[in-house]
Amino acid sequence: MYKVRAKVVKMKGRCHYHNKGDYIEAEDDLLTVPDGKKICLWSLSALLPFLSAVQREHDEPSDWLSTVDYIQCPDSSVEVLWEIEKIPV
Predict the structure, then answer these.
(1) Is residue 8 packed enough to be buried (19+ CB in 10 Å), middle (13-18) or exposed (0-12)?
(2) To bridge 25 with a disulfide, which of 13, 32, 65, 76 should be the other Cys (CB 3.0-4.6 Å)?
(3) Helix, strand, coil % over all residues of the chain, rounded to 5
(4) Is the pTM of the predicted complex or chain greater than 0.85?
C-alpha cells in the first residue's frame, strides 16, 4: 500500500482556491488536507476516483493506473494540474 499525495504543479489562469504547491494526501480510507487549506469540488471530483485506486500495487503490465502521473481539474475556467505521487508506507 501507498500513501498518495496530489500536489498542484501547474496552473494556467487564476484559480480562486488553489496555489502552486498546495497538496492533499490519501492514506487508507482517509483524506488529509493541510490546516487552513481547502480543496474545491471540481478538483476533488477529478482526483477522488484515483486516490484510493493508486494506493495499491499495480503489477499487471496492462494496468494503466500505474502510468497515471497527473490529473487535471475539469473546471473549464482555469487549468489546475495535480501531480500524483505514491509514497511507500
Answers:
(1) buried
(2) 32
(3) 20, 35, 45
(4) yes
